[in-house]
Write a structure and sequence with these properties.
Layout (H helix, E strand, L loop, with lengths): L1 E5 L3 H13 L3 E6 L7 H18 L3 E3 L16 H21 L4 E4 L9 H15 L2 E2 L8 H10 L11 H7 L6
Parallel strand pairs: 1-2, 1-4, 2-3, 4-5
The chain binds iron/sulfur cluster.
Length: 177
């Protein structure tokens, strides 16, 4: 199966990538994360993915789109904000998969126990219907720790917050570090 896997970041891609390749699939990655703030952090996460590609030989497609202003109107609990954020990224992944002739698309967001898993799945199913390309759903979460350990061994940059300006503020991480 020719599978496009949207990569939210390099560490989260490690485990899904490994299992998919082991099972004989032919994944290609897709970096599209305009949620990441600030621009320096966006660049850093993209560079980490390039390092992952260099080490593993993975083929990755990159979009440098950066649109932080979409997050500026949100504050408080993240349900609505994260829904907007997933919607942007899942819709783009589906559209890109369709345009480039992939059989299906999925996302490394499905590995993280910190993400809203059921919402991501629902949006994957929705955009599969809307764009006419299959959504490959899989619960990768049991491999999250294993993937993070491997990412550490590989020396990949591992961020301390989800991505948007609000999650940066909530994490207490220092901007640009
Ligand atoms: S917390 Fe993460 S998923 Fe939610 S809006 Fe921010 S970057 Fe997106």
């Amino acid at each position: 199966m020719k599978l496009l896997i949207h990569a939210c970041c390099a560490p989260c891609l490690v485990y899904p990538w490994e299992v998919l390749v082991e099972e004989g699939m032919e994944p290609e990655g897709f970096f599209y994360n305009p949620n990441i703030h600030p621009a320096e952090e966006h660049r850093r996460r993209m560079e980490a993915l390039k390092e992952f590609a260099r080490v593993t030989g993975a083929k990755i497609h990159y979009s440098g789109e950066f649109m932080q202003e979409r997050w500026e109107g949100f504050s408080g609990p993240g349900e609505e904000r994260c829904a907007m954020c997933y919607t942007l990224r899942m819709a783009k992944a589906a559209a890109y998969a369709k345009e480039k002739g992939f059989d299906a698309f999925t996302t490394s967001l499905l590995v993280s126990p910190y993400q809203k898993h059921d919402l991501i799945k629902a949006l994957g199913d929705r955009f599969a219907r809307e764009y006419g390309v299959a959504f490959y759903y899989r619960d990768f979460r049991p491999g999250f720790r294993q993937g993070q350990r491997k990412a550490k061994e590989m020396g990949l940059y591992r961020q301390k917050y989800c991505g948007c300006i609000i999650s940066l503020g909530e994490s207490g991480a220092v901007e640009g570090r």
